[in-house]
């Protein structure tokens, strides 16, 4: 039996706000995405190492 193809998205929390992430996740939901992911970091991945994460 074949499994259905599912789609997800990974959002980056760096240099954005929770409100922007929430809006993105809502849009993904409206577009029919199955999952939305994010990650946490205590240090920035890129940019100013002492800047916001």
Main pleated sheet = 2 strands, parallel
- Distance between the first and last residues' Cα: 43 Å
Helix fraction by DSSP (H/I, runs of at least 4)? 10-25%
- The tally of beta strands, per DSSP, is 2
The rough form would be described as elongated
Integer tally of domains: 1
What is the mean predicted local confidence, pLDDT?
Answer: 85
The chain-level structural class is: alpha+beta
Neighbour order of strands in the largest sheet: 1-2
Output the number of helix runs.
Answer: 1
Low-confidence stretches: none
Strand content: 5-15%
Order of helices and strands: EHE
Round the Cα radius of gyration to an integer and report it.
14 Å
What does it look like?
This protein has 53 residues and is of the alpha+beta class. The chain has one domain (8-52). 25% of the residues lie in helices and 11% in strands. A two-stranded parallel ribbon has the order 1-2. It starts with 7 loop residues before the first strand and ends in a 16-residue tail after the last strand.
Features:
two-stranded parallel ribbon; elongated; 53 residues; 2 strands; single chain; alpha+beta; 1 helix
